[in-house]
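does this look right to u?? zinc ion version
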Amino acid sequence: MTSLRSFVTYLAILSITQLTFGQPAETPTPETSRLAGYSSQSSKRERDWEKKLQAGIVPENLRHYMQRLSARPHHVGSPYDKENADWILSKFQEWGFDAHIETFQVLFPTPKERLVEMIEPSKFRAKLQEPAVLGDPTSHQTAEQLPTYNAYSIDGDVTAPLVYVNYGNREDYEQLDRLGISTKGAIVIARYGGGWRGIKPKVAAEHAAIGCIIYSDPKDDGFFNGDDYPKGGWRPREGVQRGSVMDTDYPGDPLTPGVGATADAKRLEIKDAKTITKIPVLPISYGDALPLLSALQGSVAPEAWRGALPITYHTGPGPAIVHLKVVSNWNLQPVNDVIATLHGSDAPDEWVIRGNHYDAWVNGADDPISGMVTVLEEARLLGELHKQGWNPKRTIILCAWDGEEPGLLGSTEWVETHGDELQKHAVAYINSDSNGRGFFFAGGTHDLQHFINDVARDIQDPEKHMPVQQRARLRQIAQAPNAEERAEIRKDNDVRIEALGDGSDYTAFMDHAGISALDIGYGGEDDADAYHSIYDDFYWYTKFMDSDFSYGRALAQTGGSAVMRLADADVIPYEYNAEADTIGRYVKDLEKLLKDKQDEITERNLELKEGVFTATADPRKTSVPPPAKPVPPFLNFAPLKNGVEAIKKSAERYQAAFAKWQTGGTDLPGQTATALNAELVQIQRSFLSEKGLPERPWFKHQVYAPGAYTGYGAKPIAAVREYMDQEKWKEADAQVPMVGQVLENVAAAIGKAADDLEKAVGQGQ
Ligand SMILES: [Zn+2]
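got this back:
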């Protein structure tokens, strides 16, 4: 899934205009310098092999794979999805991998009946159909296209007055409250954007709405941003964004939380599956939304709520009355993961895992095939190098996931099925998804921040002729919100990587199994978006996106090098200073959040007392003042701060010993390295708490998690943070010691590795 493309494009434009000339040019790592985790000898050998991989990636291959994989619609359970799985399997095998397909049976609803009609004040029936485009051959494959819908919407048939709710976030409903507008018993219409789509029906139901319609406003996603399709690459009038609205209690099959959806797995009944929506929901185009929005009266929508349609945006309720009907086929469908293994020579029990999904909503050239093809080309090269005599030290596992779009089905079920083995053996999981042109980006666990920066220093940007790491760093400096933060970012030579939520297949690895993870790709310069529509196809991608596959090549070079470097290192190059710093920042964020809330609520209560809230900006409307709230109490963050300090100390010791070994140039004895690596692999696991997050026990990682109301977006230290966001201060306070204990466990695990490396380095000299 993963798409915030229009937003990212905006940021990119911002950053380019902000980039001043005369930035100090960063000197790239000299090619002769020693790779982290390698001896001088092994480093040189590794660089030679990686160069071969980088030189061998052929953009034309990426184009061919894409043409093949996106030739027909290939959603979960469709014939072409299976054909793709078989084709990918045959390729992995042809390239020398030990490969197989692993199948799960998951609940995957597909549309049976869809209806949106206006019955008052005039009659209108929504088309709910994306028209084919002349010249775009696959847009005509109507028979195989999955109709426009939101998967995991509950079935329903409702008729009610319509209310416009902007993005449909919690803040939007607070605003409606202030305008005196209720959504009780209404059908809400929300625009896409401003957060993950699944939050919209969830929050609507929490505000007693009985149905939810989501449309793509051209301001966020369409002609406001550039020419629309087919003249340009932006979403056209009838274009619809499909997508899952599965709730975020847990990803994967709704019927088998926490266990693999194997044929004989114990399943919940559909009515007991918590992740299906509470009210029916359907996505529509702005062509279909326009008559509905035009028919609304009531308050004029606040300025920030207005889109790019040629109407005055009103909130309603009514007089528009809408009839919404959604009925799905609730069937079990197979998801077929393709798993390919290249066995390690020295440490076969340590696994480096790389993956991308191959299922799409329709043809999915961008999402996900633009990422999938890079993994395939990496596989071809790894196989080729293996034939030439390269033997990875560790085992490499490449995964082509099925069923990502509906809810990370393929990857989650695989991780749940192989949880014990993975926790023993997994070194890291490296994900990619859609790929575009522009800036290198990475998210993940921060023990891999320095590592992925090093890899990105060795990859050339196809347009800017500088290392992709340097370009990403300049952008990060330019985008810093203030001078202070800019100075902080400048101090560090590494690009800071983002914390990940649950936008793609890394989720189960990281959040559930405690495996170090990365999500990598390129983007930010694409002047197009056809996300989850029938127009995201080969014709569109090769016209408006990475037409020459030069950034596809860059991603294959990045991903391939990262896999090789992790697989061959003498000591796995995790780095813990960045991890400690980042967690320290997260704790500071919690402190700041508390302070801000205290100030905000104090201020608000004062204003209420003074009667400020009874006056409104719009004198024609009366406004209901919000209730006074208790000011948040003092929260004792000491256990978290102590935990961070403990991690910092252990990390410094470990990195000092690591640096000593690296500059010393001595080889670590094989047995010492093996024992150390086994310990290192387990460190990320110590972030897990078996009980999981208080209200979402599937999420076991205590630092990285998506928010219950952010979906794809991350919410670090969610056990505490989520309660703070809900202003449940006592509950938040109660979580602090538990997370503090987890941080102490992490510090102890790093400390143990530091002891052992110090000992080894001492002995070696
Ligand atoms: Zn995707």
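The longest strand covers residues 98-120. idk if thats expected tbh
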